[in-house]
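This part of the workshop introduces the protein records we will be handling. To make this concrete, we reproduce a full record directly below:
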Amino acid sequence: MAIRHRRPPRLGLKTRRTLIGCALLALLVPLTAIALRVVIDRAQDCAETIDLEVAAAPAIASALGNVAGSLRPEDLRVNATCVAVKVTEADSASVAAALVDARGGKIDVGGGTEAAALPHVWVPESRAWSLRVDGAVEAGSGGVLGAHQPSVAFSPVGLAAKGSDVEEFQPGLALDDWDPEKLPVCVGDPRRDVAALAALAAFGNVGAGREVEVDTKLDGEKLPKGYKAMPVSKLDLDAHNADHPDEPWVLLETRPAVTGLDFPYAMRADLSGLLSQAAEKFLAVLDDADNMARLTGVGLLPPDEYQPVLTTAAVTAALNGIKD
């Protein structure tokens, strides 16, 4: 008996086209992925890299430097331009003097200052500095610093004293009912010390400013003889207590509160569009939770939008009558 072998059924034209298409797709997918990776890599290339110069107060400079050091230039791209952030620790009085001098103005910062380069972004301890800088240039010439100056960190300011000297004033000292005989207060030079400036403004707001002693030679490391309290930030108080565990201070809060250190992020008003965008991108990076942890890691607090803000009038009034 003859055995007949059946031929396998022939595939239809549509089926053959489908199989050929799948085979081609299998070959094209890895090639497409490679091509896409090349395009992405080329897009991440920097046509150029510019430096964004940031001058920061000593209390915050190391933390901002750590944030900047964690970034690659391509992380802050502006179109095809990459941005490297350079943070420099700078005395706020020196930067203020340099900014005002560059515009032909004058500012009294209570003595000699070191030469300071003009930064693209300035982060002083307090908005009081930027108010003073813009107030020290000729009216009508435009601001030295941009109007948008968001706070990037915070440290409360109060009166530092020994615990035994302020027990009766806890939980806070009412400035409008303050007795200078019970708690004599001395402040440092408000032209350089923003905690002193803020304290004078707070006492002045309730008409008690004339009762506060101003000592332009005051050493912030120790309470002056004959006085029981002086204004400091919590940041400085914590540093003092760490260095002097046998002589700790307490921070006495006042009512109304003394304006704290708000570390404004102040961009120069004359920045080019490219640098302005770069500065905005670095500001946005500071809002990241990990980067905020870098700031809190040095004893700072997140920005406090509910804190009282110094005004130009309050700053001017506090500075009047200062003598060396």
The chain has a mean pLDDT of 87. The first helix runs from residue 13 to 43. The domain at 157-255 is CATH 3.40.190.10 (D-Maltodextrin-Binding Protein; domain 2). DSSP finds ten helices and ten strands in the chain.
